[in-house]
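Table S5 (text form). Sequence records supplied for joint modeling of the two-component complex.
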Amino acid sequence: MDTWYFEKRGWDSQSAVADGNRFLIANGYMGLRGTVEEAARLHCPAVNLAGVYDRHADRWREPVNAPHPLYVRLSLDARPLALGETEPVSHTQRIDYRRGVFSRHTDFGAAVLESERFVSLAQVHLLAARLKLCFREDGEAELRTGISTDLWDLNGPHLFDFAFSHGQTLLCTAVTGEKKIPLAVAQRAVCDFRCTERFETGEDGVFRVLRFAVKKGDVCRLTLLAAVFTGLDTPDPAQRAVTLCNQASRQGYAACLRESDEAWERVWQASAVEMHGDDEAALALHASQYYLNSIAPRHAANLSIPARGLSGQTYKGAVFWDSEIFFFPMFVHTQPEVARSLLRYRIETLPGALKKAAEYGYRGAFYAWESQEGGAEGCTDFNVVDVFTHRPVRTYFRDKQIHISADVVYALRRYYEITGDDSLLLAGGAEVIAQCARFYLSRATRHPDRETVDFADVIGPDEYHERVTNNAFTNRMAAYCVESALALRDIFRARPDFIAALTEKLDYARDWELLADLLGRIRKPRTRKGVIEQFDGYFALEDCSLDTVRGRLCDAREYWGGDHGVAGPTQIIKQADVIALMALFPEAFSDAQLAANWAYYEPRTEHGSSLSACMYALTACRIGRLDRAWELFEKTASIDLVGGGKQWAGEIYIGGTHPAANGGAWMIAALGFAGLRVEKGRLTLSPHLPKQLTRLRFPVTVGEERLLVTVTHEGWTAEKEE
Amino acid sequence: MDTWYFEKRGWDSQSAVADGNRFLIANGYMGLRGTVEEAARLHCPAVNLAGVYDRHADRWREPVNAPHPLYVRLSLDARPLALGETEPVSHTQRIDYRRGVFSRHTDFGAAVLESERFVSLAQVHLLAARLKLCFREDGEAELRTGISTDLWDLNGPHLFDFAFSHGQTLLCTAVTGEKKIPLAVAQRAVCDFRCTERFETGEDGVFRVLRFAVKKGDVCRLTLLAAVFTGLDTPDPAQRAVTLCNQASRQGYAACLRESDEAWERVWQASAVEMHGDDEAALALHASQYYLNSIAPRHAANLSIPARGLSGQTYKGAVFWDSEIFFFPMFVHTQPEVARSLLRYRIETLPGALKKAAEYGYRGAFYAWESQEGGAEGCTDFNVVDVFTHRPVRTYFRDKQIHISADVVYALRRYYEITGDDSLLLAGGAEVIAQCARFYLSRATRHPDRETVDFADVIGPDEYHERVTNNAFTNRMAAYCVESALALRDIFRARPDFIAALTEKLDYARDWELLADLLGRIRKPRTRKGVIEQFDGYFALEDCSLDTVRGRLCDAREYWGGDHGVAGPTQIIKQADVIALMALFPEAFSDAQLAANWAYYEPRTEHGSSLSACMYALTACRIGRLDRAWELFEKTASIDLVGGGKQWAGEIYIGGTHPAANGGAWMIAALGFAGLRVEKGRLTLSPHLPKQLTRLRFPVTVGEERLLVTVTHEGWTAEKEE
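The corresponding structure-token record, covering 1444 residues in total, follows.
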């Protein structure tokens, strides 16, 4: 079995949106949803752009979808041969994970349409497609192809002032509504058959209409080369788009694809995990790695990755803690330059975090829960729509999920500890850590007659329980942040000038003292029979089963959390919380502690977030519950392959790919099954290989070297790659 | 116009429940709802007992309704002559506020039934009724009278192990479910006509059935004397009930009523406010005073008054801050022995408040938001039922409405300041103040890098906004409480032994110091153009009209508050909050401040609580907005006369009388219109008499004296009563 591609046979309109995620091709700059060339808006085709945000009226700010330049629609004797309009004899679509290539094969009876396409990993502004048409009937064929502006938007429209030009190259330009960012899409078509050509320009875009007579047995080929640029890339997106189109056209489709393939080959050499013993699992893991690798911002040194990648506008295209806790590990161990980009994004958006803290009356840096460009907070106070009243409901993700700043610090510090490279700390990272610690200092509270300090009124990873006090995860992360700030003086003890400059720049002298005092005071979690209480009062909540809670739902789409949700008053949690803490600080807990907490919390976890299963799987490895770890690995790794996951939260669409689970799959394989740990460039492994696997092999970048790790039930090796 | 009674003509089944409140007769020990003798359970007849609580299964604990001993049902030739079953020719019912007497006159065509009844203010265990029947047709009459156990309960049943005996005196005994409190009800009937007598005992009670032949023109009279005792009154309720019945029977109905009338006369001499110029208003004020006077616990020295008085089981029969803020003023100025009872209730229930504070991890005294016997907290975590899902919703009245402890202290301190009497402080009051201040000390929070102290995560009087920080009312009340504790050392500077003993008993030495440090740190409210921000962030909420918010309701019965309610995300508030603060601390604010805040908050107030209008009226007097003060007075004073007020909160019945508004009506008249203020036995008046009134006259008890205050537009006098 080839564990590097996924193929789906048959066509049904209902799956088109989910398949748009599953067959996504992307290159970090843009994501082209896996819809067919002729897809109507109903099926949500989109060219989703990384880092280009727009807000329409008072709706949510979200990333912009570019006009779609690989649009093609075929008809024969005025009969459409198009999915969604015509029932096909057969249809197959396929994604090649190794190369990032989408292809389809559709038999319409009168003609067979085959195509493949890619967005170049070598030239991130470039998209290309190649179509092959085999006719089984004589007739008058028509191909309508061009740049479609009939865009799918969740909270649009976002593009205005459309202008079109045509000729050898079609060009569409527009500007975004809010910030007037110009955007250009060019497309060039090359066909190997004689035809008449006519241009159409309208509200739905600019198109060329090719008409040609065909005979049974005729085979016709069409190649499309397209380019997308925005004003964030260049002062003249239109010219750059046209130039790139023409250049690619000269280079030819095959050469362009070869360049992209080579780029993908380098990615896989650095990161591909080979699992032996279970091909389904191996495929799922390749898929996961593909979905995450395909959205890595390799073209930029200071971008991060949205929580639904480049699969659409879900979650406002914003960057969450997913970046630091779920994406970062694979990248830091395989492609540290991507990990650095994620962290530089946070360093460069520090001003946004300072502003947010000040907005709430605190000092220091409070990172956005949903970070958009410049660190602007995309999360609103009303993130859920009540399904009964259709009214927005006040949620507290924005203001109370304070662990986000510590999550950023966690990755910054782990980067230093894993790589031993202090360059990011010197280039702004230390300042981030200091400002985050200052935030926790000013957010902490102490009763005048008590010695300990609380973090009150917060939300931990389990979002179903809002506004709790002393969430164990949050308190530990805050303590880690404070400890990391204090550790800076140790890390840079050979550079007292650096610390002195930092102290002076941030007016930090008093804060060093306050932080030293704070650290020991942060409330430790309460425990009961070794089980950490998730937050103060958690054990007093109703202790009932997941089925009981699910049975209380009045509407399948209603939100489970908060005071009105079914989970809020119970011990049922959305996702790993105490267990996430234990996964992030493995050395701080004994196996017995881990086992007790795992046994308590796992049955009480809905796993209602794709961030949950991987934390449970990681920790399950350690305590020898390998059967459960394996189940949770399969669940995590296959999430985008089977196209599962919640599509709705209340009345809000939340579908898309799940990069956190994708990263989680790598974490379970490498950190869990293989027990990989790298500290200051020293690699150790303590494998827990499930019985389903015979061998696990993956590359790890350690310093300047790449090691190839092999784990079997007999032992492990780590060889330097030549 | 006689401004001392209310009469209603006509009968409609729909109004029977509301009329049960409006025609309530009560004596502090029990309340007999204003339903007719033959009322079926549907019309909610009840004999509501003060201070006797029971909890059935896991439902809400609530006061017990006793079996009903004034039940009478008439029939003629087997045809019922009973409201609810028979359409009357005419029906009138009436309540005499001066005497606390209910009467009715019902013409059934075939017969006319007249009755009157009272619960004795002189003998609080005694109830009596007198019926007169005038027959217009010959026939065979039947009167079924006795003790009905077909009880109306909101969260019952509460009585078990019923036992019945009959003879000259009917007796019903039972015990409560939870605490096995015995209860006995006896009834004796005297008739002036010949009849056959038969007894019936069944699930619905014990009855005597009197049958007699009547002729057109016959007039028959029946007198009922009944008694209620519980195990909280005496070890042998049954014997006491029978004995009292027999004694009253010997004494006779008229003599019993005379005793009660005399007791009422003393109440009115001490408290009746006479308004000249508007008879409707005068009647409404008499009604208000009646509803409040009739439920004063004069028979006990240590009881308080439930928020819906003795009109039923609404709000669990619990004692709220209404007692200290809304009931206390009339009593302290007219019947200080009742004010002392309210305060002694708090002093004696201090252990409950200490326990509640400890439950939440705090020191000191956190009084119950809904206080039941012994100070037990009757408020649950789920006080609202969602109308859309029918699920209970987590509310925060119990745990976050922390101003309650300061409200208790406010009344304790005001009692001392008004009367100059330190006996309550010496007899436990000082300890209450110290323990409440200690609670605020331990509830306060301070950020490690800030000088000020916050009260975070609270609810102020405006319950629609849950879990807010630095509610201006709460912070000021907490500061007053702390200041009152510190003032104890001044008040008792001549008794250093007392303070020393208190300090030692409570281990308070360190707390004195911490409190002294705390007082100046408590965050002062933010202001904008002189308007106090109700809590941190209030001004940032959506600023829209009451109509806009009301227009968003999806169901007339849905709850407005919390994160799901229509008011939560807006500046629309339930009731006076900043204005309540200004009403309680009139000397702390200038007229200009008051005017600015009044103008801002009044239009944003739903007045969704009967506690609201009176605070706005009181403050309106001061700033010369007498027309608005008058409107709000009329609204407040007439609430139980017109039978208005919300009947539902979500799916919870909240109907009943409104003692807080009743007390509020007195406050507006005496403290507002007359501008009464008594400090250490010195009376001052600064009248703001509305143009609708020509004269206002009322008694005030000052020390051992009673003064009769008269206010006209020309001036005022205060004469000593002879």
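Note: The mean pLDDT of chain B is 96.
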